[in-house]
Amino acid sequence: MSRSAEMLDRRDALVAALEGLQRGQHKISISAVARKAGVTPALIHNTYPDVAERIRAVSGRDASALRGKENAILKSFQADNKRLHQDNAQLNADVARLASIVQTLTNEVARLRALSAGQVVEMGKQSNR
User: Fold this and answer.
1) How far is CA 88 from CA 17, 61, 75, 92, 98, in A?
2) Sign (positive or negative) of CA dihedral 108, 109, 114, 116
């Protein structure tokens, strides 16, 4: 038997092993398919990468699908981060505005205390007598 014919037979055996695991509703993994086909997982990874990718796709471990999910999660985190930065900027502006109000009120309290203690005489205000 030629090497290419042997490789095709082995590929067919791997696919048959995968389909058998699927029919039996067994856990699908490269190791499980290799065990059922009587080969090593390394053989599948190194010699039959297309079969390995098919196994990953069936088992839900498809690299492109995982990257897609990770990208969606990343985009969600980025959107949340952007919103939080905007919220933070608004809160900082609110704090600055409130600090200005507090300082104005503190100054007014100090002025009124000094005025009531007779320590200060206000100038420029006329009474309505």
Assistant:
1) 56, 38, 20, 6, 15
2) positive
Residue type for position 81: N
> Residue 50 corresponds to which tokens in the numbers above?
């297309």
- pLDDT digit string (tens) for 93-110? 999 999 999 999 999 999
pLDDT classification of 128: cutoffs 50, 70, 90: low
Residue with tokens 């005025």: 115
pLDDT of residue 129: 45
